[in-house]
Amino acid sequence: MNIILLGPPGAGKGTQAARLVEHHGMRQLSTGDMLRAAVAARTPIGLRAKEVMDRGELVSDEIVSALIDAELTAMGEGVGVIFDGYPRTVQQAEQLDAILARHHRRLDAVIELEVDEEALVRRICGRFSCANCGEGYHDEFKPLRVPGTCDRCGGHEFKRRPDDNEATVRKRLQVYRNETAPILPLYEQRGIVTRIDGMAAIEEVTDAVERALASA
Ligand code: AP5
Ligand code: MG
Asked: Nearest-CA neighbor of 181 among 59, 4, 58, 7?
């Protein structure tokens, strides 16, 4: 299956994608994660993307679509894919159609996580992850079981994203409304969109995603 997880910053795209990877052996393709890796490695793309990301604006359509295309080429055809944070503009949605056709894949479902904007600010400002294995946490909603120690790998170092501050989150929400929300009607016309309440507990959202995929 090839699916898109769509939703504003902090909606839980990354959280739910990680669970689908674990349960179904699908691959998560997060353009945000790819760009952050490029920034950390100081590649030419990373150097160009860093300031744009820190401002909460969008990196160019050509760059992100090229990243997705390259990942699909490297992956081969048999593996299911979760697109997390891509596409984010009408142009990216059109580019994705062309990329999927080239790779002999079809889009099975678009899952939209619906969330309340004020809750998102709270979610994002409390988020951190393990610097070693990348497991995601939240100060309030998904705390460490043992303080200072990663539940998954036992690591002791954690990091927070530079764009996870209130001012940038508000900018990212505005960009989502203006640039990303307009792609939904394209997929609605194809009858492949399922809306899920992203304000429910993490496990409940996962159950709803699983039900949506079972009927896709
Ligand atoms: P990206 O990394 O994609 O960030 P985003 O879309 O802003 O989304 P987030 O990763 O912040 O949120 P999420 O939905 O994954 O939520 P999460 O699961 O972590 O993009 C970053 C930047 O890169 C962009 O601003 C842009 O500059 C650039 N970029 C990326 N892709 C691009 C593209 N295609 N085109 C152009 N530019 C691009 O959850 C958040 C927190 O809430 C966590 O702490 C989690 O534990 C908690 N949580 C999750 N679900 C629940 C729940 N149900 N209840 C309670 N807490 C929950
Ligand atoms: Mg994410």
From this structure: 7
* Residue found under tokens 């709270």: 122
**Per-position pLDDT tens, the chain of length 216:** 999 999 999 999 999 999 999 999 999 999 999 999 999 999 999 999 999 999 999 999 999 999 999 999 999 888 999 999 999 999 999 999 999 999 999 999 999 999 998 899 999 999 999 999 999 999 999 999 999 999 999 999 999 999 999 999 999 999 999 999 999 999 999 999 999 999 999 999 999 999 999 998
Q: How far is it, in rounded angstroms, from Cα 208 to Cα 198?
A: 10
Is residue 160 among the annotated active site residues? Answer: no
Active-site hit among 55, 88, 142, 160? 88
Coil, strand or helix at 146:
strand
**Residue to probe by mutation, ligand 1, list 82, 123, 171, most atoms within 8 Å of CB:** 123
Counting ligand 1 atoms within 8 A of each CB, the residue from 141, 150, 174 with the most, and so the one to mutate, is 141
β-pair type (109-114, 193-197) = parallel
The answer to whether the beta carbons of residues 115 and 199 sit under 8 Å apart is yes
**pTM of the entire predicted model:** 0.94
